[in-house]
User: Which sequence fits this backbone?
């Protein structure tokens, strides 16, 4: 079972009660009070050679911003973070800090690391002055494909450098996974909207409902006068297991389930968006997406939600805080198990029975951990003859996503690797001149902060490319 320290920490962030929050979509973690933030900041010992900065993919100057919190100078702390991170309110909430900045904090060697993410969130939520310096317009135009964290960051950095930036987004709204994937109870959408509004105020233009590769091609963007294009189209294509029964009614990819709930507002009582609510739900997978799908199903009224994951608790890739929250809310974990088939209900005597074709159970096989794979993680191996069946009404598959091939298929000269990720140099340049890429479209499903880091790197490279040409 869970190996995490569930003891309340003295400086624990206030949270909604687990029973109450399992029935609503309001934010679970409520943020530090001023006193808590200053106490937590004072735990930072300001070491001579701070490692935490190296743990952050965009190298936020952590000791410096924490020092400003000690002095209760929140605007000063914000200005320091904003030098490197465009979306601190988001990163403070969703970064996997325990494997990034906090993993390197020296206080963590003998106890709890400083809660860097929570402090970053406190600063972003409480700073009053959040302005950014914008250079004079330079007359050059750049197009950005996709408004997820990679696209938003690239657009933000380029507009500050004086470029005219237009973001083309397939959906009717901006934010990418931040709005259609990560649920409201973990990342309130008003926070994403505030960040997008800031970009709009700075002059970034957003064009919605345009699918690059269908409505317009990358080559057409160049014909329209854009001198460079950044592709931040993410990895929205869900993977399936390839087992029998995946096309029955009541089987969803996590992407579809979460999009229906988040973007199409199925969670609202008055919503007409179809979605399975109630009953018994199985979620397959162990990452953040699986936790979000499970906790969303619970809030939509499921009587029981079970996560099925093929490795053990120690290998769960989800953020530690989300796993702890899921356990507290009553999500059940069936570990070391892997689904082998899904069965549906069929009434042979009544072909018009409305229940026909709907999921009735999932069969899984028990697993044990064998030799480590190429990444050093022990490989799960099936235990012969250990299959068991569990009655369920809904199955949500959250075993990863891949980049959509649409842009590759419609752009000559744009090379991708065998997993569909766009091939780029360290600077984010693709194999097609003037086209840059970053985020999940390059790496496959990864993290918000690494997508932001890639957007930043590409913005710098685009600026150099256009400046050299001019
Ligand atoms: P995306 O966020 O996917 O954005 C891509 C955008 O491009 C989308 O808006 C899409 O509509 C648009 N687009 C796609 N194709 C086209 C096209 N052809 N034309 C125009 N627009 C297009 N990471 C964390 O760090 N912490 C977490 O807690 C966390 N939880 C997650 C929970 C869920 C449910 C999911 C799905 C992911 C989670 N992640 C988390 C991962 C993280 O959200 C992603 O790594 C990150 O959003 C990738 O950013 P991106 O900008 O590359 O792509
Ligand atoms: Fe840590 Fe993320 Fe903030 Fe970097 S951006 S300091 S990794 S919480």
Assistant:
């Amino acid at each position: 079972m869970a190996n995490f320290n569930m003891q309340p920490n003295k400086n624990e962030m206030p949270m909604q009660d687990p029973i109450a929050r399992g029935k609503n979509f309001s934010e679970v973690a409520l943020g530090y009070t001023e006193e808590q933030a200053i106490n937590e900041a004072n735990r930072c010992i300001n070491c001579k050679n701070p490692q935490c900065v190296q743990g952050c993919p965009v190298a936020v100057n952590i000791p410096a911003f924490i020092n400003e919190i000690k002095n209760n100078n929140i605007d000063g702390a914000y200005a320091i973070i904003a030098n490197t991170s465009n979306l601190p309110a988001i990163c403070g909430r969703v970064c996997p800090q325990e494997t990034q900045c906090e993993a390197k904090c020296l206080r963590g060697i003998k106890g709890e690391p400083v809660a860097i993410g929570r402090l970053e969130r406190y600063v972003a939520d409480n700073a009053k002055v959040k302005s950014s310096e914008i250079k004079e317009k330079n007359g050059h135009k750049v197009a950005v494909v996709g408004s997820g964290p990679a696209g938003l960051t690239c657009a933000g950095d380029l507009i500050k450098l004086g470029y005219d930036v237009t973001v083309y987004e397939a959906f009717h709204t901006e934010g990418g996974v931040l709005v259609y994937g990560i649920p409201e109870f973990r990342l309130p959408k008003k926070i994403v909207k505030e960040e997008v509004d800031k970009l709009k105020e700075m002059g970034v233009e957003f064009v919605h409902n345009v699918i690059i590769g269908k409505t317009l091609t990358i080559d057409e963007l160049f014909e329209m006068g854009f001198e460079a294009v950044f592709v931040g189209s993410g990895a929205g294509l869900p993977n399936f297991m390839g087992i029998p029964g995946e096309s029955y009614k009541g089987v969803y990819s996590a992407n579809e389930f979460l999009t229906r709930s988040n973007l199409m507002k199925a969670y609202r009582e008055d919503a007409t968006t179809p979605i399975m609510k109630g009953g018994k739900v199985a979620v397959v997978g162990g990452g953040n997406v699986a936790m979000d799908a499970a906790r969303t199903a619970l809030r939509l009224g499921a009587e029981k939600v079970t996560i099925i994951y093929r490795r053990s608790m120690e290998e769960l890739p989800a953020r530690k805080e989300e796993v702890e929250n899921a356990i507290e809310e009553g999500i059940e974990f069936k570990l070391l198990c892997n689904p082998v088939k899904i069965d549906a209900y069929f009434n042979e005597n009544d072909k018009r029975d409305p229940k026909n074709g709907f999921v009735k159970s999932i069969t899984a096989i028990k697993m044990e951990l064998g030799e480590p794979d190429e990444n050093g993680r022990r490989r799960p191996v099936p235990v012969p003859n250990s299959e068991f069946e569990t009655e369920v009404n809904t199955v949500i598959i959250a075993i990863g996503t891949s980049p959509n091939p649409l842009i590759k298929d419609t752009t000559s000269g744009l090379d991708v690797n065998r997993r569909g990720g766009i091939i780029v140099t360290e600077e984010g340049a693709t194999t097609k001149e003037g086209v840059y890429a970053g985020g999940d479209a390059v790496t496959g499903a990864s993290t918000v902060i690494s997508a932001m880091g890639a957007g930043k790197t590409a913005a710098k490279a685009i600026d150099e490319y256009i400046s050299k040409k001019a």
User: Anything to note?
Assistant: The chain is about 30% helix and 15% strand. Confidence is low (pLDDT under 50) at residues 1-8.
